[in-house]
Amino acid sequence: MAEQGSEVTVVGAGAKLEGTIVSAGSLRVDGHVKGNIQADGDVMLSPQSSVEADIRAENLSVAGRFHGSIVVKGRAELARGGRIDGNITAKSLVIQEGGIFNGQSIMDQQATAAPSANAKAQAPQPQAQQAPERTHVP
User: Fold this and answer.
1) Rounded-to-integer distance, Cα 131 and Cα 126, Å
2) What is the pLDDT of residues 65-119, one digit of tens each?
3) Cross-strand partners of 9
4) Contact by Cβ (8 Å): 35, 18
5) Where are the alpha helices (DSSP H) in 9-135?
6) Model's pTM, two decimal places?
7) Which alpha helices (DSSP H) does the chain contain, by range?
8) Residue 84: which of 109, 133, 134, 49 has the closest Cα?
9) What is d(CA 40, CA 67) in angstroms, rounded to the nearest whole number?
């Protein structure tokens, strides 16, 4: 997921963070995080991670335990042995066999775009039928 050569912030296996994490690049969590995570790059939760947060990122990979809400611009992946308890909004969602997902998934607006106003205007509209004119003959 992370591009080679890009900056990756690491929350180590022994670390416990509470609060907001903002990363200009990608983020890998090996420890415990509680709060909010916002990354301009990818977020990777390793098998030993435990995260209770709201995450906003480019892409996400969960191999550990996660509770909260996820909003990613691209792909959300739940690896074998990983667990997500919460809602996911993403363009694509991949759940590997052995991954546990308990929540709701919402496909990104661009992936499920509603018909545009122009398309609605071009759609044929049902014609109202007029009753035939009645003439009264005395």
Assistant:
1) 16
2) 999 999 999 999 999 999 999 999 999 999 999 999 999 999 875 533 333 344 4
3) 27
4) yes
5) 117-122
6) 0.74
7) 117-122
8) 49
9) 21
